[in-house]
Amino acid sequence: MRINGEELALSELKFSEYLKERGLRAEFVALELNGKIVSRAEFETLILKKDDVAELVCFVGGG
Fold this sequence. Notes:
single chain; mainly beta; 7 strands; about 10% helix
């Protein structure tokens, strides 16, 4: 699978665990998976598969 251009040699990955490992909060993340936007409501149960291509965008505040 590929996440933000990084190739990961995994057969499956629970997306919510991926976020936790990286210290990311779901409410500040947008996910495109295989060319389609994924609803945040699906993040907790989403399993990425080996051929998936994902792009994450993290929102940050500033002033």
